[in-house]
Amino acid sequence: MNKRRELIIAFGATALAAPFASFAQQPKKVPRIGYLTGDSQSADAPRRNGFRQGLRELGYTEGQNIIVEYRTAEGKSDRLPELAAELASLKVDVVFAFTIGAVEAVKKTMPAVPVVSVTPDPVGAGLVASLARPGGNVTGFSTLASEEMIGKFMELLKETVPKITRLAILSNPTNPFTSLALKETERWAGNLKLSVRLFSASTPDEIEKAFVAASKERVGGFVVVPDAMFLAQRVRLAELAAKHRLPAIYGIRDHAESGGLMAYAASRPEIFRRAATYIDKILKGAKPGELPIEQPTKFELVINMKTAKALGLTIPNSILVRADRVIE
Question: Is the per-residue pLDDT at 151 higher than 90?
Fold first, then answer.
């Protein structure tokens, strides 16, 4: 009887232990990251590689201990809300969003989901309360300070082509960053003794119209304000600048690599690599509103000498010695 009782107790203990053992062996939830950018896949490739490198350095392997859902709007900002909704349906744990439009789409679609952003001026755009304490569900990286960068573009182009007296600035009015980028234009124009004309383009067709209008007004060069649509149309922009024989400077290095004369910008692959550290912190419990916005420390000046020669320009040594890359 004692032996029978022992067998019953042993069996009961095993039955009770089984559910706990089964629970303990449940696979750990693999975090799912949303990745949203307004750029094209080709333009995004080097930055995406930087992001993936950052994940690997932190011990993440896509498809194993992390899943990344990539969505690109191909320069069509009106697609961003639709793509953000796709990510929301996948129940992502955190979103990495690049461009102001992408961040705004995510905030509207997923107001409670943490967002790691890469934008020009997140405070000025109203995405965060401050750089030190963003508040809310957004943190991340600033790619530039608009009033400083727009002046830097104008300064570099004036130094490259000293004879310029009239300058055109091309911007996309649908981009929230445009008003921020243009607010210091007049002050810089006065300092550099330049007259400035503003041209807008919100569609690819309007880009060509802007160049035709600028050429008729005999401007001596173009400053192209960073924008996802312009980036997607970077080859066309370079072709139009060459056709109208207008030197141009851009805020994203891909433009210079695609035939634009020069670009001055924060190193985006480096920023994207660093962004992985914020994803990691949030997955481990950090609150985005308490993670300070990081500002870029590495900027790159890229010059396309082939384009300079085609335009009949001699790039001054003062510019060449500061270049991080010269494309022959």
Answer: no
pLDDT at 10 over 60: no
Average pLDDT rounded to a whole number, residues 71-100: 94
**Are domains 32-143+268-296 and 146-266+300-327 of this chain identical in fold?**
yes
Return d(Cα 214, Cα 246) in angstroms, integer: 9
Q: What is the pLDDT of residues 247-262, one digit of tens each?
A: 999 988 889 999 999 9
Q: Is CATH 3.40.50.2300 what the domain over 146-266+300-327 is classified as, yes or no? A: yes
Residue 28 has pLDDT above 90, yes or no: no
Question: With contact defined as beta carbons under 8 Å apart, do 127 and 280 qualify?
Answer: no
- The residue behind tokens 């001054």 is 316
pLDDT per residue as tens digits for the range 156-172: 999 999 999 999 999 99
CA–CA gap between residue 12 and residue 116 (Å, rounded): 50
CATH homologous superfamily for the domain 32-143+268-296? Response regulator (3.40.50.2300)
Are the beta carbons of 250 and 260 closer than 8 angstroms? Answer: yes
By the 8 A CB rule, do 296 and 130 touch? no
Q: Tell me the H-state helices in the chain.
A: 2-24, 41-57, 80-89, 100-109, 146-160, 177-182, 185-191, 204-216, 228-232, 234-243, 253-257, 268-283, 305-310, 317-320
Look up the pTM and report it: 0.70
Give domain limits for the chain.
Answer: 32-143+268-296, 146-266+300-327
